[in-house]
Amino acid sequence: MPDTGLARQSTLYRAGTLGRRPVVPTDFAELERRAKRVSSAEAWAYVAGGAGEGRTVRRNREAFDRWAIEPRMAAGAVDRDLSVDLLGTRLPSPVLLAPVGAAALMGRDSDVAIATGAAATGTPYVFSNQGCHPMEASAAAMGDTPRWFQLYWSKDERLVDSLIARAERVGAGALVVTLDTTVLGWRPQDLNLGSLPFAKGLGIAQYTSDPVFREIAAERAKQPRERPRVTLGAIRALIAMSRNHPGPFWANLRSPAPRASVETFLDIYSNPGLNWEHLATLPERTGLPFVLKGILHPDDARRAFEIGAAAVVVSNHGGRQVDNAVASLDALVRIRAALGPEPTLLFDSGIRTGADVFTALALGADAVLLGRPHLYGFALAGAHGVAEVIRNVLAELDLTMALTGARTIADITRDRLRPVETPAPERDRA
Ligand code: FNR
User: Fold this and answer.
1) What's the pLDDT score for residue 416?
2) Is the C-beta atom of 329 inside 6 A of ligand 1?
3) Does the structure show a pLDDT above 80 at 227?
4) Nearest of 131, 127, 130 to residue 154 by alpha carbon
5) What is the pLDDT of residue 233?
6) Given a cut of 90, is residue 407 above it in pLDDT?
7) Are the beta carbons of 216 and 159 closer than 8 angstroms?
8) 114 C-alpha to center of ligand 1: Å?
9) DSSP per position, 416-427
10) pLDDT value of residue 429
11) Ligand 1 pocket member 328 (CB < 6 A)
12) CB 286 within 8 A of CB 306
């Protein structure tokens, strides 16, 4: 069970009375500032950066400002229940941790630490296909806490099956297939630094731990190829790849495997030709419920449910893929209106606080995924930082429920919000 908001407040105030300030700030702006301070330029570009001019990232947040919560008084909501049923599993709250790749940029033991922090609060974690630890290691850190696996559809169908089989073996409760990243978006922050974590072998642990991928990479390593020119940059890249590759560093340095793995990965990790026929094979490939992530249009959402998806994640990947794209929250409103109350809609891209969770739920999300905030908590205080961020978000959600008279998550309905009036000058320009 999550702490109630009151218990969380009391923990923080009591510590404060004794002179201790929280290591993980309780508001997002300060959390972000401090996380930036402890991150390298490359890490910050990758994690905080967005596509193009950053319009989608901004719009994701601005969309929340167009809705206001309308508190109701004297509802006597003393005991709140944040738990929800999601795909047949009872969860302590409607919050999951979003899949994030290359988290090792932000600190040691990344995925395992994030899994540990998630489990400390009973929060499900969606393991990224671009993880820095094999899913088996992250699962081992979670005990009985639900975990899901997120897949990028590879060009190699055998690899797709192998990853799905591993997800089944680690007890994943669902398979999340991310559709919005068949190619990487235009990301100027990374491009200006010439920084791509995967090129250094960071964020490819699901691949290097996979028997099918290793076979493919070993074949490739046997093929004759041009030796790269020996430059300082090439040596640095080789050292990074050797460090990030499984096995002893010195052996890796002399082996063709780390470079072959990176090259193989870059070649096959994603299939730009992905279409609905591929996705329609999912029910015969796995007994796991599957969830399609990256949906922004009602027709795509409809199609997902037609082929048997258990849920979709309305998401624009945190504004990292298409610049000037629709805000994820606006897409949620449109999709819920088009599909009606039944289908399970998850939401991410822009959730920062408990009030944001409340707003997204009121606009039709059944649950939400927390992305960058948990990474920032991780950057500041490892597994503990992740757990603290989750506790803060849930505490605020709980207090918002108390103050608006919602006892259960089902009570958080659309009529608890009002659209914010757009000031006249802006309206005229629109
Ligand atoms: C992501 N996201 C992501 N999504 C996914 O399906 N697979 C992945 O490997 C990643 N990797 C990743 C890395 C980083 C650094 C970030 C910030 C995001 C997208 C993620 O799951 C989620 O959709 C966004 O993080 C939501 O946006 P906000 O709320 O974090 O802005």
Assistant:
1) 97
2) no
3) no
4) 130
5) 87
6) yes
7) yes
8) 14
9) GEEEPPPPHHHH
10) 62
11) no
12) no
Q: Are 365 and 347 in contact (CB under 8 A)?
A: yes
Q: How confident is the model over 241-257, as pLDDT tens digits? A: 999 999 999 999 999 99
What is the residue type of 224?
A: P
Phi and psi angles of residue 11, each rounded to the nearest 5 degrees, phi first: -60, -45
Instruction: Please work out whether the CB of residue 294 comes within 6 Å of at least one atom of ligand 1.
Output: no
Write the CB contacts of 279 (distance below 8 Å, at least 6 apart in sequence).
Answer: 177, 179, 292, 304, 307
* Distance (Å) from CA 104 to ligand 1 centroid: 14
For residue 86, report the phi and psi dihedrals to the nearest 5 degrees.
-130, 120
Residues 107 and 43: their CA atoms lie apart, in Å, by: 10
Angle at 373 between CA 383 and CA 163, to 5 degrees: 70
> What pLDDT is attached to residue 226?
73
Does residue 267 contact residue 155 with C-beta atoms inside 8 Å?
yes
pLDDT digits (tens, 9 = 90+) for 317-361: 999 999 999 999 999 999 999 999 999 999 999 999 999 999 999
pTM more than 0.90: yes
For 89, the 3-state DSSP assignment is: strand
Q: For residue 399, give both structure tokens.
A: 């207090």
- Residue 318 phi/psi, 5° resolution? 65, 30
Q: Report the distance separating Cα 296 and Cα 255, nearest Å.
A: 44
In this structure, what token pair is assigned to residue 386? 């992740």
The span from the CA of 123 to the CA of 145, in Å, is: 7
pLDDT tens track for 124-173? 999 999 999 999 999 999 999 999 999 999 999 999 999 999 999 999 99
Rounded CA separation 236/241 (Å)? 9
CB of 349 sitting under 6 A from ligand 1: yes
As given in the structure block, the two tokens for residue 343 are 């289908």
Which DSSP symbol is given to 388?
H
Going from the N-terminus, what domains does the chain have, and what CATH number goes with each? Answer: 5-189+271-419 (3.20.20.70), 205-268 (no CATH)
Tally: H helices and E strands in the chain: 20, 12
pLDDT of residue 225: 74
317 is catalytic: yes
Reference 236, options 199, 274, 289; nearest CA is: 199
Pairwise CA distance, residues 383 & 329, whole Å? 29
- pLDDT at residue 390 tops 70: yes
Give the distance (Å) from ligand 1 centre to CA of residue 99: 6
The closest-lying atom of ligand 1 relative to the alpha carbon of residue 178 is 6
Please give the helix or strand (H or E) that residue 69 lies within, else none: strand 67-69
